[in-house]
Amino acid sequence: MRFSTFCSMAAALTTVASNPILTKRKIEQKPQTAEIPPSSNDNIQTSYGKPFAVYQPRAFVISMFVLERDPWLKAMDFVHNITIPGLSPEYPVIHCTTDYTVCQVTTGEGEINAASSISALALNPLFDLTKTYFLVAGIAGGEPAYTTLGGVTFAKYAVQVGLEYQLAYEDYHAVKPEWTAGYVPYGAENPNSYPGNVYGTEVFEINANLRDKAVALASNATLSQGNEKNQQFRELYTEPAARGPASVVSCDVLTSDNYFTGNVLGDYFANLTKLMTNGSATYCSTAQEDNATLEVLTRLDKHGLVDFDRIMVMRTISDFSRPPPSMNAVEYFFNRSDGGIQASLDNLVLAGTPIIHDILTNWDDVYAKGEVYASSNYVGDIFATLGGKPDFGKESFDVA
Which PANTHER family does this one have (predicted)? Predict the structure, then answer.
């Protein structure tokens, strides 16, 4: 071993040893080959323990693009930059605070980028995420019946609505005038039927007790109400929630890489949300990435790499998902003047920081073991990958 290499290793180990947050995990003793029972089914199984992980963050903020990332970089002491393989080429760096208790990653927008980046993070041997709390913190479109510009939403359900057949209006309205939209769930024959086959990513349910704690803490924050144009645009709506001030609400998020707007699609996806969750979920925000992120975390929880019970999904409202009565969908989508998205960006930190602060402040007594706010509801996907019985979906379905 070169002397310079030895010095570098010694310095690194000294740094770890001097920081109480970066404690070396106990290495689990693996059985010797002779102790492994023989198998005749030719199925080799592996585990992915991380006995030499260096970083053990207590909270991880997940952003999707630069505008969501920058408020966190300005608000917290993210002084450490860690580059790992597999992250987005646009966002290859993980940021961590001085003592590495809080870190932040930016996935890149869209479902593919989210799944790829979170997989790269969670499988990297440097990070032990088994006790980490994840806060997905992004902006979204909002339903005026439940929220407003700058509003803050915390979800219990995430519903993927892009897994459908699609027909143009001109191609179906003459023969199917009763259809409410040109979308039809996979394996179904009309827009309002439950899918005949599923991929397993259609619905995720997350820890309602932890969500409720995050909502309670965020509700005490003084939120940004935006600018004068934000207020003027709110007044174009008739719904009390849309016209009112930005606040924190508990309601659910949709995932789709297809941006949509208008009353027809808004009504259809709201009904689909009810259909997919047996009436349990209330659609109030629409985003691109959440089901992709949750799918990765579900798979890795199955192998003990993360704890799905420690996930929160927060979306702040940058725009309305449907136009006010005085505007048509085209006019609204391309020519609206609603004052911009700054309030939603500001409120990511204002509403997200309280739960992170609480995690750090009460780590030893409350959050480390994950028992105080452990879920009492079902958590996981439609396949019951993590055990339990989903309170959504059908008794039986075909797996695509």
Answer: PURINE NUCLEOSIDE PERMEASE C285.05-RELATED
Looking only at the bridges linking them, the beta strands covering 133-142 and 283-287 are antiparallel
**Start-end of H helices in 280-341:** 290-301, 329-335
Note down pLDDT in tens along the chain; length 400 residues. Answer: 444 444 444 444 344 433 445 544 443 443 333 444 444 555 555 455 677 889 999 999 999 999 999 999 999 999 999 999 999 999 999 999 999 999 999 999 999 999 999 999 999 999 999 999 999 999 999 999 999 999 999 999 999 999 999 999 999 999 999 999 999 999 999 999 999 999 999 999 999 999 999 999 999 999 999 999 999 999 999 999 999 999 999 999 999 999 999 999 999 999 999 999 999 999 999 999 999 999 999 999 999 999 999 999 999 999 999 999 999 999 999 988 999 999 999 999 999 999 999 999 999 999 999 999 999 999 999 999 999 999 998 776 777 6
Residue in the block written with tokens 């803050």 = 152
**Closest C-alpha to 223, from 45, 350, 318:** 350
Those residues with Cβ within 8 angstroms of residue 140's Cβ, 6 or more apart along the chain or in another chain:
153, 253, 285, 286, 287, 315, 316, 317, 318
- CB 346 within 8 Å of CB 318: no
Q: How many CA atoms lie within 13 A of 249 on its CB side?
A: 25
CATH code of 50-159+199-399, in short, is 3.40.50.1580
